[in-house]
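Data deposition worksheet. Section B asks for the primary sequence of the deposited chain exactly as it was used as input, without tags or linkers unless they were present during the calculation. Section C holds the resulting structure in token form. Section D is free text for depositor observations; keep each observation to a single sentence. Incomplete worksheets are returned to the depositor.
Section A, Depositor: J.P.
Section B:
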Amino acid sequence: MIKKNGGPYINRYDLPGGSMDEGEPLENTAIREIAEETGLRVTDSHQLGTVSFRFPWKYQKYTWNEHICVFNLIEEYQGEVKATVTQFIGQDSLGAVWIPLSKLSISNSSPLVLKAKEYLLTERFETKDTEYPHWQVLS
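Section C:
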């Protein structure tokens, strides 16, 4: 998990991720973002699927957010998670931590973390989109 310091998941646990750089393949984006936000180097992974999370969030002229997410299963990695990571413009991770699944809930985690938890507990990845009509951004 990463400790989020911005956006609608601020002050919650989240999964590493972010925007693609120009010309960057999707798989490379996931590997780069994981390295930037956790310090881990992914050596083997595969895509599980894509889902969307909808929730209220007042941002610029918008009142709802639709977060489209591509999930990857990390099979192998090298390195150790970094409790703090290099900060730069656009960096929304304060660092990474290992958290027991039993400690993850809607009150402290992003929808992405809850989806990953569901997958780890059931070994099934459902591609149904999810809406959180009462989502609260923590300040």
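Section D:
The domain at 2-131 is CATH 3.90.79.10 (Nucleoside Triphosphate Pyrophosphohydrolase).
The two ends are 19 Å apart (CA to CA).
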